[in-house]
Design goal:
Order of helices and strands: HHEEEEEHEHEEEEHEEEEEHEEHEHEEH
Keywords: Amino-acid biosynthesis, Cobalt, Diaminopimelate biosynthesis, Hydrolase, Lysine biosynthesis, Metal-binding, Zinc
Distance between the termini: 24 Å
Bound molecules: zinc ion
Helix content: 25-40%
CATH class of the largest domain: Alpha Beta
Number of strands: 20
Radius of gyration: 23 Å
Shape: elongated
Protein name: Probable succinyl-diaminopimelate desuccinylase
Family: Belongs to the peptidase M20A family.
Cofactor: Zn(2+); Co(2+)
CATH superfamily of the largest domain: Zn peptidases
GO molecular function: metal ion binding; succinyl-diaminopimelate desuccinylase activity
CATH topology of the largest domain: Aminopeptidase
């Protein structure tokens, strides 16, 4: 089992699916190679060697349990600084090193091991299993969106997202709202600011007003507080010219209970007010990314079943909140499926140099998924 886990994970790590450009179709071909030829599957292509895969194992009844894992990884901007080459899958002291080991080819490996368990031992699971491998989670999420829009995920009654959660039970994740803000004012000589409209100052004012309107003090028991950060800014041409244009990007992260539509409504109100206060300026807001925060009640039947499985295996039961968003954010708000974010590896390893995962952790989580399925 250990050797097999290593082999599958190493093969996946050796396929470069850094996004952009993704090339997830290469990983899909490799995954299909792990399975017998008669496995039921569907590939949805997204063009440019990108695609998502669904494997299905028929169960005794029609209820469907889903596992959704992404195949793409973030890029490697600092390859020469890695201790081991990021696409070799070197193992040392029980850990495999490489880009995507934790986020989340380890989780994908646990999914594959789970599927193989039922196929190779000729076990018909109580419920039908759907293993979903998606493209582009690290960027716009074209994979999960395409599957959702084709109604291929609608039939799931429960869904596991095997992202790295330190083997804890992830019951909530923060939302993300990314805005680009463009301000156009009026240029004038630096000695006569009164004749112009300073776009940088107006941009700053807008951002401060928007931030001031957000509830950044409200606290969630697992996720802490929402946040608001200016992450990009540009504008102006010269020291002695009042700038005509300025733009900024803000990265807003929200806890459950904060409504993104409310934030956007407020942003447009502030826009309107500022344009009325100072005729001649225009403020434009572009929504670049909008993923709502998610949460599932600890008392939900699905979560209770998972806790039972943990207890059965003598795994420590601990809840977790994820600071980052997952494919769940583009699925749950549409289909309202009970979900859990639960997988091998450490959350802190995501997107890091010398990313690694414990092989044992991958095996423990595969064991958990199998046990859950059999007893559900
Ligand atoms: Zn991930």
């Amino acid at each position: 089992m250990k050797e097999r886990t290593e082999n599958i994970l190493r093969k996946l790590v050796s396929i470069n699916t850094t996004n952009p450009p993704g090339n997830e179709m290469d990983a899909i071909k490799t995954i299909l190679g792990f399975f017998p030829e008669d496995i039921a599957y569907k590939i949805v292509e997204h063009g440019d060697n990108r695609g998502s895969l669904i494997l299905e194992i028929k169960g005794e009844d029609e209820e469907k349990i889903g596992f959704i894992g992404h195949l793409d990884t973030v890029p490697v901007p600092d390859e020469s600084n890695w201790v081991y080459p990021p696409f070799d899958g070197v193992t040392k002291d029980g850990y495999m090193y490489g880009r995507g080991t934790a986020d989340m080819k380890g989780g994908v490996t646990a999914m594959i091991l789970t599927a193989l368990h039922f196929i190779e031992n000729n076990i018909t699971p109580p419920h039908t299993l759907k293993f979903v491998f998606t493209a582009d989670e690290e960027s716009g999420g074209i994979g999960v969106q395409a599957l959702r829009d084709k109604d291929l995920l609608k039939d799931l009654s429960k869904v596991f997202i095997p992202e790295p959660t330190d083997e804890q039970i992830g019951i909530c994740e923060k939302g993300a709202l990314w805005l680009n803000i463009y301000v156009k004012g009026r240029a004038s000589h630096g000695s006569r600011p009164d004749l112009g409209i300073n776009a940088i100052e107006k941009l700053y004012e807008f951002v401060c007003r928007l931030k001031g309107n957000m509830d950044l003090e409200k606290e969630h028991f697992l996720l802490g507080k929402s946040s608001f950060a200016i992450t990009l800014i540009s504008g102006g041409v010269k020291t002695n010219i009042i700038p005509e244009e300025a733009k900024a990007s803000v990265d807003i992260r929200t806890i459950p209970g904060i409504d993104h539509e409310e934030i956007l409504k407020k942003a447009h109100e502030i826009c309107k007010t500022m344009e009325e206060e100072k005729p001649g300026i225009s403020i434009e807001i572009l929504v670049v990314n909008n993923r709502p925060p998610l949460t599932i009640d600890e008392g939900n039947t699905f979560i209770k079943e998972i806790i039972k499985t943990y207890e059965k295996l003598s795994y420590p039961v601990k809840f977790k909140g994820l600071n980052f968003y997952t494919d769940a954010s583009q699925l749950i708000p549409f289909h309202h499926i009970p979900f859990v974010i639960l997988g091998p590896g450490e959350e802190k390893m995501c997107h890091q140099r010398n990313e690694r995962i414990s092989i044992e952790s991958v095996m423990r989580m595969a064991k958990l998924y199998i046990s859950y399925i059999i007893n559900s």
